[in-house]
Amino acid sequence: MDSDALIKLTKAGLLPIITHAWQCLIPDEVYEEVVVRGKREAHPDAEAIERFISRGLERGHARAAPRRLPPTLGPGERSVVALFVQEKADLILTDDRAFLAVLRRLELPHLTPALALVTLAEQGAVPLDQARDYLDRLKPLIRSSAYEAARADLQKLI
Questions:
Q1: What value, to the nearest 5°, has the Cα angle with vertex 78 and ends 76 and 83?
Q2: What's residue 57's pLDDT?
Q3: Does residue 30 lie within any of the structural domains?
């Protein structure tokens, strides 16, 4: 999971649900960016995210990122891919447009926060009425097209 997804999931109140349903890893670089720097800059989400580290959100140390990554990716994204490969993870959670484009090009499995919510509803980890409420909380944080697509996907589950 990258910084973008981590912050959005926290703001929407979804982080505890995702970390309960799935094993979630963040690389040290993401922790540094979101928690350490976030606390230094007084971002309220930093404290909440730090609390989840002891409740299901795991930190991992990523070794070297694959060489085929574009140099335009930042250290957080590079370490997310490295940890994904190293741990043989199932997918990467992100909502960063540039990172999503790279993941598509590299054919790496990924989900946005909105699609993660739909997947949790499909799996029965989140009741449908709650999933719609969480999607509404995500709405101001995500692109309108992502919101509309997730809303339509949730509607199909009825």
A1: 95
A2: 87
A3: yes
